[in-house]
Specification:
Number of domains of chain A: 2
Helix content of chain A: 10-25%
Number of strands of chain A: 13
Largest sheet of chain A: 5 strands, antiparallel
Shape of chain A: globular
Structural class of chain A: alpha+beta
Distance between the termini of chain B: 30 Å
Largest sheet of chain B: none
Structural class of chain B: mainly alpha
Order of helices and strands of chain B: HHHHHHHHHHHHHH
Mean pLDDT of chain A: 82
Oligomer: heterodimer
Number of strands of chain B: 0
Radius of gyration of chain A: 21 Å
Radius of gyration of chain B: 26 Å
Shape of chain B: flat
Chain lengths: ~190, ~375
């Protein structure tokens, strides 16, 4: 079969294959996100501003989560850059706390829990006999806003509580659906 | 390219005067050279730059019209731009404008990368940027192989290197998986028989080997780096004996081995801060290696080894001078001894050269 494809820009077949494969690769990313956003379990969590004086850097907002920063107990031998599955439990509305973390995906024990996939960004050395604690990034730490609206949103956000609406998929993938500022969802777009 | 033309200009005159080539032969060679220059000239360089600029323009346009356009329209525009670039490449290639076609292919690869970033932004994906880089590199490799585009392959190698560096920094350890895509892109360079690409591979691998010195054994594995470099040099010399039909491969690997060995020796001397005795021992070793490399460069006709040898020698001397500046007496003594040794070597080289000359003329 490969003999019939001439690898050259003069071959329309070769051109079409290159363009098609790249298009499919991009479409796969979009499809994955859209199905996660529409089928994933929706949870709302409070957001802690990483740097309250400079929340909006350029045109995206940096989001911090209580369950990400240095407090995730991870199995021994976990290294920076490793994939971990973190189980969270909603203790009070919009407050999610870490129940545990493991290197393999485990289904949430009950409906009050979710499991999110993350990457260990930093591991702190544990005291003797204790399990190491880590900072984990879930890929939901940036929220891009329309060009030039960052400042406006910044003023809205000042002194007000922000929450993030997340979609959690069956294998632990997470995506941001929207931000909630003062009880209102901002910048929520159709999935397409 | 330019230095080659200048050299062959002089050579052609000499060869014609010596009666080795006819005036018609000279004219034919010059015509052939002109043709090469015309297809690889300024126009193509500008076309590549234009591709880069247009790629940025497309990205900025789509990014700036953020959310004015619905997501579907933005994605559709990216796909249309992608297909248009590759289609344009096809049209240009069919008209025999291979340089412009390459620029259009590069534009397509650029739009593919931009699309990855814009889609991540559209869905607020803040994952590991390295994964996006690897996907982009895969797209560049696909275009490079499928459309036989060397610039696209070179870009794939640059992306792979960038990916490897960012992963090594993120994980804070040696990132061995780098070698896999490196090998794949290198194989593509070999398949294309594109020598500049293979040099790019050589440089990338050299950087990886040198980085091992700063990563393994708690960041003190420079001795290993020097040994790997010396081993590569020895293997190249042995290879040249066993398979002399591949001279470019052996001279190339010899030079990369030399550069790796030097990087290791320099790190041992100037990064590790050894005692003066050990420092001097290493310095003598490095100078001996460089002189041997210069000898080898002359012996094997390897210009690269000569240049690395000369440049390395100058840098080594300067670095020793800066390092030992406090103890001027030792300094003076060291340079005196080194100077005497090198003069003796020069005398030997001169004699060898004088003896070799008549033979070369008769053969």
């Amino acid at each position: 079969m490969f003999k019939t494809i001439k690898l050259s820009p003069t071959s329309w077949l070769a051109v079409a294959i290159v363009a098609a494969v790249q298009t499919i690769a991009l479409a796969t990313i979009v499809y994955g996100r859209v199905s996660l956003l529409s089928n994933g379990r929706e949870i709302v969590t409070e957001v802690i501003p990483v740097d309250p004086r400079d929340l909006f850097r350029g045109d995206y907002v940096i989001l911090g989560y209580t369950f990400g920063q240095g407090e995730v107990t991870v199995p021994k031998g976990t290294n920076q850059g490793d994939k971990v599955y973190v189980t969270l439990k909603e203790t009070t509305p919009e407050k999610w706390e870490v129940v545990g973390a493991s290197t393999d995906y485990a289904h949430p024990a009950d409906s009050a829990q979710v499991v999110m996939k993350g990457i260990v960004s930093y591991v702190s050395m544990p005291p003797e006999g204790e399990q190491p604690k880590a900072s984990v990034r879930y890929g939901i730490e940036s929220y891009f806003v329309p060009e030039g609206t960052g400042r406006e949103l910044e003023e809205k956000v000042r002194d007000k509580k922000i929450s993030a609406v997340l979609a959690v998929g069956g294998s632990g993938d997470v995506a941001i659906k929207a931000l909630v500022v003062d009880g209102q969802r901002v910048h929520q777009e159709p999935w397409f | 390219m330019w230095s080659y033309r200048k050299r062959i200009d002089g050579d052609l005159v000499r060869w014609r005067d010596a009666g080795w080539i006819t005036p018609e032969g000279e004219a034919a060679i010059r015509r052939d050279l002109e043709k090469g220059v015309r297809t690889l000239g300024l126009a193509n360089a500008l076309a590549i730059l234009a591709a880069v600029l247009i790629g940025f323009a497309v990205m900025s346009f789509v990014a700036a019209n953020w959310q004015v356009m619905p997501r579907l329209l933005r994605i559709g525009m990216l796909f249309a731009a992608l297909w248009a670039s590759y289609g344009l490449a096809g049209v240009l290639a069919r008209r025999g404008m291979s340089g412009f076609a390459n620029a259009a292919i590069l534009l397509g690869v650029g739009i593919f990368g931009g699309a990855i970033m814009l889609i991540s932004q559209m869905y607020h994906m803040d994952g590991n940027p390295a994964d996006a880089l690897l996907l982009w590199a895969a797209g560049a490799l696909l275009a490079g192989v499928g459309l036989r585009s060397n610039p696209s392959l070179a870009f794939a190698m640059i992306l792979v290197v960038y990916w490897g560096i960012s992963e090594a920094m993120r994980l804070d350890r040696v990132f061995w998986p780098f070698l896999l895509p490196w090998a794949v892109v290198s194989a593509a360079f070999y398949w294309q028989r594109w020598r500049p690409g293979l040099h790019l591979s050589g440089l990338a691998l050299m950087g990886f080997v040198v980085s091992l010195g700063y990563r393994l054994n708690d960041g003190h594995a420079h001795g290993l780096v020097a040994v790997i470099g010396l081993g590569l040099m020895a293997a190249s010399i042995a290879g040249e004996r066993l398979k002399p039909e591949l001279p470019a491969l052996w001279s190339g690997s010899f030079n990369y081995g030399l550069a790796i060995a030097l990087a290791g020796l320099w790190a041992l001397q100037f990064f590790e801060d050894p005692t003066l005795d050990i420092f001097m021992l290493l310095a003598v070793l490095a100078l001996a290696l460089l002189i041997a490399a210069i000898f080898w460069g002359f012996h094997a006709g390897n210009r690269g080894a000569l240049w690395i040898g000369y440049a390395g020698f100058s840098i080594e001397i300067l670095a020793i001078y800066v390092k030992t500046i406090g103890s001027l007496l030792n300094n003076a003594l060291f340079f005196l001894v080194a100077g005497l040794i090198v003069s003796a070597l020069a005398a030997i080289a001169y004699k060898l050269h004088a003896r070799g000359q008549p033979q070369a003329a008769t053969s």
